[in-house]
Amino acid sequence: MKNLIKNKIVLITGGTGSIGAELVRQTLKFGPKQVRILSRDQTKQLYLEKELNEFIRAESPNVRFFIGDIRDKERLKSIFRGVNIVFHAAALKHVSSCEYNLFEAIKTNVYGLQNVLEEAVANNVERFVYVSTDKAVNPSSIMGLTKYLGEKMVANTYYYQGAKRTPFASVRFGNVLNSSGSIIPLFKQQINQGGPVTITDPNMRRFFMPIPSAAQLVLSALNYSQVNETFILKMPSIKILDLAEVLIQEYAPRVGKDPKDIKIKIIGRYPGEKVHEQLISSEEAESAVEMKDFFIIRPKVLIPSKLGHIPNYIYPKGAGKPKTKSKGYSTAEVTPLTKEQIKKLLFNQNLL
Predict the structure, then answer these.
(1) Which sequence positions are flagged as catalytic?
(2) Cα–Cα–Cα angle for 223, 176, 24, nearest 5°?
(3) How far apart are the C-alpha atoms of 122 and 276, rounded to whole Å?
(4) How far is residue 225's CA from residue 86's CA, in Å, rounded to a whole number?
(5) pTM of the full predicted structure?
(6) What is the pLDDT of residues 81-110, one digit of tens each?
(7) For 34, phi and psi rounded to 5 degrees?
(8) Sorting pLDDT into bands at 50, 70 and 90, what band is 306?
(9) What are the residues facing 265 on neighbouring strands?
Protein backbone atom coordinates (compact mmCIF):
# COMPACT_ATOMS: atom_id res chain seq x y z
CA MET A 1 0.00 0.00 0.00
CA LYS A 2 2.81 2.37 0.88
CA ASN A 3 4.39 1.76 -2.53
CA LEU A 4 1.11 2.70 -4.22
CA ILE A 5 0.48 5.91 -2.27
CA LYS A 6 3.88 7.25 -1.18
CA ASN A 7 4.74 10.51 -3.00
CA LYS A 8 1.51 10.32 -5.02
CA ILE A 9 -1.26 12.92 -5.33
CA VAL A 10 -4.50 11.43 -4.01
CA LEU A 11 -7.94 12.93 -4.65
CA ILE A 12 -10.82 11.99 -2.34
CA THR A 13 -14.23 13.22 -3.47
CA GLY A 14 -16.78 13.48 -0.70
CA GLY A 15 -13.71 13.71 1.52
CA THR A 16 -15.50 15.17 4.54
CA GLY A 17 -18.18 12.46 4.76
CA SER A 18 -17.88 9.53 7.14
CA ILE A 19 -16.05 7.23 4.68
CA GLY A 20 -14.21 10.03 2.90
CA ALA A 21 -12.79 11.52 6.10
CA GLU A 22 -11.60 8.11 7.31
CA LEU A 23 -9.94 7.57 3.92
CA VAL A 24 -8.13 10.88 4.42
CA ARG A 25 -6.87 9.77 7.84
CA GLN A 26 -5.70 6.37 6.62
CA THR A 27 -4.19 7.63 3.36
CA LEU A 28 -2.03 10.16 5.23
CA LYS A 29 -0.28 7.28 7.01
CA PHE A 30 1.33 6.16 3.72
CA GLY A 31 3.23 9.36 2.92
CA PRO A 32 1.38 10.83 -0.08
CA LYS A 33 2.80 13.85 -1.82
CA GLN A 34 -0.59 15.55 -1.47
CA VAL A 35 -4.14 14.67 -0.45
CA ARG A 36 -6.85 16.70 -2.15
CA ILE A 37 -10.17 16.74 -0.31
CA LEU A 38 -13.19 17.74 -2.40
CA SER A 39 -16.59 18.41 -0.85
CA ARG A 40 -19.41 20.96 -0.85
CA ASP A 41 -19.59 21.44 2.91
CA GLN A 42 -17.36 24.25 4.16
CA THR A 43 -18.21 23.60 7.82
CA LYS A 44 -17.23 19.92 7.62
CA GLN A 45 -13.99 20.93 5.92
CA LEU A 46 -13.15 23.29 8.79
CA TYR A 47 -13.86 20.58 11.37
CA LEU A 48 -11.72 18.02 9.50
CA GLU A 49 -8.90 20.53 9.02
CA LYS A 50 -8.91 21.26 12.75
CA GLU A 51 -8.85 17.54 13.57
CA LEU A 52 -5.95 16.90 11.19
CA ASN A 53 -3.84 19.90 12.22
CA GLU A 54 -1.80 18.03 14.81
CA PHE A 55 -1.14 15.11 12.48
CA ILE A 56 -0.36 17.42 9.56
CA ARG A 57 2.23 19.32 11.59
CA ALA A 58 3.77 16.06 12.81
CA GLU A 59 3.96 14.27 9.46
CA SER A 60 4.09 17.32 7.15
CA PRO A 61 2.01 16.01 4.25
CA ASN A 62 0.48 18.48 1.87
CA VAL A 63 -3.27 18.51 2.47
CA ARG A 64 -5.52 20.68 0.32
CA PHE A 65 -9.22 21.34 0.83
CA PHE A 66 -11.34 22.16 -2.21
CA ILE A 67 -14.89 23.50 -2.09
CA GLY A 68 -16.70 22.19 -5.15
CA ASP A 69 -19.32 19.90 -6.65
CA ILE A 70 -18.71 16.89 -8.88
CA ARG A 71 -21.52 18.24 -11.08
CA ASP A 72 -19.20 21.14 -12.01
CA LYS A 73 -16.79 19.75 -14.59
CA GLU A 74 -14.83 22.97 -14.95
CA ARG A 75 -14.08 22.87 -11.24
CA LEU A 76 -12.98 19.25 -11.54
CA LYS A 77 -10.53 20.06 -14.34
CA SER A 78 -8.42 22.25 -12.07
CA ILE A 79 -8.61 19.85 -9.12
CA PHE A 80 -7.53 16.82 -11.23
CA ARG A 81 -4.26 18.29 -12.48
CA GLY A 82 -1.48 15.90 -11.54
CA VAL A 83 -3.71 13.46 -9.66
CA ASN A 84 -2.46 9.86 -9.49
CA ILE A 85 -5.12 8.11 -7.40
CA VAL A 86 -8.86 8.76 -7.00
CA PHE A 87 -11.20 7.61 -4.26
CA HIS A 88 -14.71 8.58 -5.33
CA ALA A 89 -17.00 8.73 -2.29
CA ALA A 90 -19.16 11.75 -3.19
CA ALA A 91 -22.84 10.87 -3.68
CA LEU A 92 -26.39 11.42 -2.57
CA LYS A 93 -26.80 8.37 -0.35
CA HIS A 94 -30.10 8.43 1.54
CA VAL A 95 -32.89 6.34 0.04
CA SER A 96 -35.81 8.58 0.99
CA SER A 97 -34.03 11.78 -0.07
CA CYS A 98 -33.18 10.36 -3.49
CA GLU A 99 -36.68 8.93 -3.89
CA TYR A 100 -38.25 12.38 -3.59
CA ASN A 101 -35.46 14.21 -5.46
CA LEU A 102 -35.04 12.01 -8.52
CA PHE A 103 -33.31 14.48 -10.84
CA GLU A 104 -30.92 15.70 -8.14
CA ALA A 105 -29.89 12.10 -7.44
CA ILE A 106 -29.22 11.55 -11.15
CA LYS A 107 -27.25 14.79 -11.48
CA THR A 108 -24.90 13.83 -8.66
CA ASN A 109 -24.74 10.03 -8.73
CA VAL A 110 -24.74 9.58 -12.51
CA TYR A 111 -23.68 12.76 -14.30
CA GLY A 112 -21.37 13.75 -11.46
CA LEU A 113 -19.71 10.33 -11.62
CA GLN A 114 -19.41 10.68 -15.39
CA ASN A 115 -17.53 13.96 -14.88
CA VAL A 116 -15.16 12.35 -12.41
CA LEU A 117 -14.53 9.34 -14.66
CA GLU A 118 -13.89 11.50 -17.71
CA GLU A 119 -11.39 13.63 -15.81
CA ALA A 120 -9.72 10.51 -14.42
CA VAL A 121 -9.24 9.18 -17.97
CA ALA A 122 -8.16 12.57 -19.33
CA ASN A 123 -5.50 12.85 -16.63
CA ASN A 124 -4.30 9.24 -16.91
CA VAL A 125 -4.75 8.45 -13.23
CA GLU A 126 -3.06 5.28 -12.04
CA ARG A 127 -5.94 3.83 -10.02
CA PHE A 128 -9.59 4.64 -9.32
CA VAL A 129 -11.88 3.26 -6.60
CA TYR A 130 -15.63 3.92 -6.54
CA VAL A 131 -17.66 3.63 -3.32
CA SER A 132 -20.96 1.84 -3.95
CA THR A 133 -23.68 0.26 -1.79
CA ASP A 134 -25.57 -3.00 -1.29
CA LYS A 135 -28.65 -1.13 -2.52
CA ALA A 136 -27.17 -1.39 -6.02
CA VAL A 137 -27.98 -5.12 -6.02
CA ASN A 138 -31.41 -5.76 -7.59
CA PRO A 139 -32.27 -2.12 -6.85
CA SER A 140 -35.74 -1.14 -5.67
CA SER A 141 -35.00 2.55 -5.04
CA ILE A 142 -33.78 5.55 -7.04
CA MET A 143 -30.62 5.68 -4.96
CA GLY A 144 -29.96 1.98 -5.60
CA LEU A 145 -30.59 2.42 -9.33
CA THR A 146 -28.11 5.30 -9.57
CA LYS A 147 -25.45 3.34 -7.71
CA TYR A 148 -26.11 0.24 -9.86
CA LEU A 149 -25.60 2.37 -12.95
CA GLY A 150 -22.52 3.86 -11.30
CA GLU A 151 -20.93 0.44 -10.89
CA LYS A 152 -21.58 -0.33 -14.56
CA MET A 153 -20.12 3.02 -15.61
CA VAL A 154 -16.97 2.39 -13.58
CA ALA A 155 -16.50 -1.13 -14.99
CA ASN A 156 -17.15 -0.08 -18.59
CA THR A 157 -14.66 2.78 -18.45
CA TYR A 158 -12.32 0.03 -19.65
CA TYR A 159 -13.73 0.60 -23.14
CA TYR A 160 -13.49 4.37 -22.86
CA GLN A 161 -9.88 4.90 -21.83
CA GLY A 162 -8.13 3.82 -25.03
CA ALA A 163 -4.65 2.32 -24.76
CA LYS A 164 -4.36 3.23 -21.06
CA ARG A 165 -5.43 0.38 -18.81
CA THR A 166 -6.13 1.96 -15.42
CA PRO A 167 -7.91 -0.40 -12.97
CA PHE A 168 -11.31 1.14 -12.15
CA ALA A 169 -12.57 -0.81 -9.14
CA SER A 170 -15.79 -0.61 -7.11
CA VAL A 171 -16.35 -1.42 -3.45
CA ARG A 172 -19.80 -2.34 -2.21
CA PHE A 173 -20.81 -1.64 1.40
CA GLY A 174 -23.69 -2.38 3.67
CA ASN A 175 -24.63 0.16 6.33
CA VAL A 176 -21.71 1.93 7.96
CA LEU A 177 -21.94 2.06 11.75
CA ASN A 178 -22.51 5.57 13.10
CA SER A 179 -22.02 7.31 9.76
CA SER A 180 -23.66 10.71 9.39
CA GLY A 181 -27.42 10.45 8.95
CA SER A 182 -27.46 6.73 9.71
CA ILE A 183 -29.69 4.73 12.04
CA ILE A 184 -27.57 4.66 15.23
CA PRO A 185 -27.34 8.47 15.60
CA LEU A 186 -31.08 8.62 14.87
CA PHE A 187 -31.93 6.03 17.53
CA LYS A 188 -29.71 7.80 20.07
CA GLN A 189 -31.40 11.12 19.35
CA GLN A 190 -34.83 9.54 19.79
CA ILE A 191 -33.75 7.93 23.07
CA ASN A 192 -32.40 11.28 24.27
CA GLN A 193 -35.82 12.77 23.58
CA GLY A 194 -37.59 10.03 25.54
CA GLY A 195 -38.75 8.06 22.51
CA PRO A 196 -40.37 6.60 20.66
CA VAL A 197 -37.68 4.84 18.67
CA THR A 198 -39.08 4.46 15.16
CA ILE A 199 -38.62 1.34 13.04
CA THR A 200 -40.04 0.93 9.58
CA ASP A 201 -40.40 -2.88 9.66
CA PRO A 202 -39.82 -5.28 12.61
CA ASN A 203 -38.39 -7.94 10.26
CA MET A 204 -35.85 -5.65 8.60
CA ARG A 205 -32.22 -6.75 8.55
CA ARG A 206 -29.14 -4.90 7.37
CA PHE A 207 -25.44 -5.56 6.85
CA PHE A 208 -23.27 -3.35 9.08
CA MET A 209 -19.59 -2.50 9.17
CA PRO A 210 -17.46 -0.03 11.17
CA ILE A 211 -16.17 3.10 9.44
CA PRO A 212 -12.47 2.04 9.66
CA SER A 213 -13.33 -1.35 8.09
CA ALA A 214 -15.12 0.40 5.24
CA ALA A 215 -12.07 2.54 4.56
CA GLN A 216 -9.81 -0.51 4.75
CA LEU A 217 -11.92 -2.23 2.07
CA VAL A 218 -11.46 0.80 -0.19
CA LEU A 219 -7.70 0.65 0.33
CA SER A 220 -7.71 -3.11 -0.30
CA ALA A 221 -9.50 -2.50 -3.60
CA LEU A 222 -6.82 0.03 -4.50
CA ASN A 223 -4.14 -2.55 -3.76
CA TYR A 224 -5.75 -5.65 -5.28
CA SER A 225 -7.65 -4.33 -8.31
CA GLN A 226 -6.49 -5.64 -11.68
CA VAL A 227 -9.38 -5.68 -14.13
CA ASN A 228 -12.19 -3.49 -12.80
CA GLU A 229 -13.53 -5.83 -10.13
CA THR A 230 -16.08 -5.18 -7.40
CA PHE A 231 -14.88 -5.88 -3.85
CA ILE A 232 -17.30 -6.77 -1.05
CA LEU A 233 -16.36 -7.14 2.60
CA LYS A 234 -17.95 -9.93 4.59
CA MET A 235 -20.23 -8.19 7.07
CA PRO A 236 -22.45 -9.23 9.98
CA SER A 237 -26.21 -9.07 9.55
CA ILE A 238 -28.22 -7.27 12.24
CA LYS A 239 -31.96 -7.25 12.82
CA ILE A 240 -32.91 -3.58 13.21
CA LEU A 241 -35.42 -4.35 15.97
CA ASP A 242 -32.67 -6.08 17.99
CA LEU A 243 -30.36 -3.10 17.44
CA ALA A 244 -33.03 -0.72 18.71
CA GLU A 245 -33.69 -2.84 21.81
CA VAL A 246 -29.98 -3.08 22.64
CA LEU A 247 -29.52 0.69 22.30
CA ILE A 248 -32.56 1.38 24.47
CA GLN A 249 -31.33 -1.00 27.17
CA GLU A 250 -27.71 0.17 27.17
CA TYR A 251 -27.80 3.81 26.06
CA ALA A 252 -30.94 5.14 27.80
CA PRO A 253 -29.48 4.95 31.34
CA ARG A 254 -26.43 6.89 30.16
CA VAL A 255 -28.62 9.86 29.26
CA GLY A 256 -30.81 9.67 32.34
CA LYS A 257 -33.70 7.71 30.82
CA ASP A 258 -35.41 4.59 32.06
CA PRO A 259 -35.33 1.93 29.30
CA LYS A 260 -38.84 0.86 30.32
CA ASP A 261 -40.14 4.31 29.33
CA ILE A 262 -38.70 4.21 25.79
CA LYS A 263 -41.23 2.72 23.39
CA ILE A 264 -40.65 1.32 19.91
CA LYS A 265 -43.02 2.51 17.17
CA ILE A 266 -43.44 0.70 13.82
CA ILE A 267 -43.99 3.36 11.14
CA GLY A 268 -43.95 1.32 7.90
CA ARG A 269 -41.36 1.06 5.17
CA TYR A 270 -40.24 4.06 3.15
CA PRO A 271 -40.71 4.02 -0.65
CA GLY A 272 -38.04 1.79 -2.19
CA GLU A 273 -36.94 0.31 1.15
CA LYS A 274 -36.28 -3.45 1.33
CA VAL A 275 -36.74 -5.85 4.22
CA HIS A 276 -33.52 -7.68 3.26
CA GLU A 277 -30.43 -6.31 1.54
CA GLN A 278 -28.18 -8.19 -0.88
CA LEU A 279 -24.45 -7.84 -1.32
CA ILE A 280 -24.20 -10.30 -4.22
CA SER A 281 -26.99 -11.29 -6.59
CA SER A 282 -27.42 -14.85 -7.85
CA GLU A 283 -26.28 -13.73 -11.33
CA GLU A 284 -23.14 -12.05 -9.94
CA ALA A 285 -22.31 -15.18 -7.95
CA GLU A 286 -21.46 -16.88 -11.26
CA SER A 287 -18.38 -14.65 -11.58
CA ALA A 288 -17.65 -14.15 -7.87
CA VAL A 289 -14.99 -15.76 -5.72
CA GLU A 290 -14.81 -15.87 -1.95
CA MET A 291 -11.63 -14.91 -0.12
CA LYS A 292 -11.02 -15.04 3.64
CA ASP A 293 -12.49 -11.63 4.49
CA PHE A 294 -14.10 -10.44 1.26
CA PHE A 295 -15.59 -11.39 -2.09
CA ILE A 296 -14.36 -10.40 -5.54
CA ILE A 297 -16.80 -10.07 -8.43
CA ARG A 298 -14.70 -10.31 -11.57
CA PRO A 299 -16.13 -8.60 -14.65
CA LYS A 300 -17.14 -10.83 -17.53
CA VAL A 301 -17.68 -8.33 -20.31
CA LEU A 302 -14.47 -6.37 -20.42
CA ILE A 303 -11.83 -9.06 -20.68
CA PRO A 304 -10.39 -9.63 -24.18
CA SER A 305 -10.68 -13.39 -24.13
CA LYS A 306 -12.54 -15.68 -26.54
CA LEU A 307 -13.48 -17.80 -23.56
CA GLY A 308 -15.22 -14.84 -21.92
CA HIS A 309 -13.32 -15.09 -18.65
CA ILE A 310 -10.32 -13.48 -17.00
CA PRO A 311 -7.09 -15.12 -18.20
CA ASN A 312 -4.28 -15.62 -15.68
CA TYR A 313 -6.12 -13.87 -12.86
CA ILE A 314 -3.76 -13.37 -9.91
CA TYR A 315 -5.60 -13.68 -6.61
CA PRO A 316 -4.49 -11.41 -3.75
CA LYS A 317 -1.61 -12.83 -1.74
CA GLY A 318 -2.36 -13.32 1.94
CA ALA A 319 -6.13 -13.03 1.37
CA GLY A 320 -6.82 -16.74 1.72
CA LYS A 321 -7.53 -19.45 -0.83
CA PRO A 322 -10.18 -18.44 -3.39
CA LYS A 323 -13.40 -20.44 -3.32
CA THR A 324 -16.23 -20.51 -5.83
CA LYS A 325 -19.27 -18.50 -4.77
CA SER A 326 -22.20 -20.52 -6.04
CA LYS A 327 -25.11 -18.42 -4.78
CA GLY A 328 -26.03 -14.87 -3.81
CA TYR A 329 -25.28 -13.25 -0.48
CA SER A 330 -28.02 -11.44 1.43
CA THR A 331 -29.19 -10.73 4.97
CA ALA A 332 -31.82 -13.45 4.46
CA GLU A 333 -29.02 -16.02 4.09
CA VAL A 334 -26.75 -14.82 6.91
CA THR A 335 -27.57 -15.61 10.54
CA PRO A 336 -28.07 -12.27 12.31
CA LEU A 337 -26.02 -11.31 15.34
CA THR A 338 -27.51 -12.01 18.73
CA LYS A 339 -28.30 -9.09 21.04
CA GLU A 340 -25.21 -9.90 23.09
CA GLN A 341 -23.07 -9.84 19.93
CA ILE A 342 -24.62 -6.52 18.90
CA LYS A 343 -23.85 -5.10 22.33
CA LYS A 344 -20.22 -6.28 22.06
CA LEU A 345 -19.89 -4.77 18.58
CA LEU A 346 -21.20 -1.40 19.74
CA PHE A 347 -18.86 -1.41 22.75
CA ASN A 348 -15.88 -2.32 20.57
CA GLN A 349 -16.65 0.61 18.27
CA ASN A 350 -17.09 3.02 21.21
CA LEU A 351 -20.75 3.51 20.34
CA LEU A 352 -21.92 2.68 23.88
Answers:
(1) 135
(2) 50
(3) 40
(4) 13
(5) 0.88
(6) 999 999 999 999 988 899 999 999 999 999
(7) -160, 145
(8) very low
(9) 198
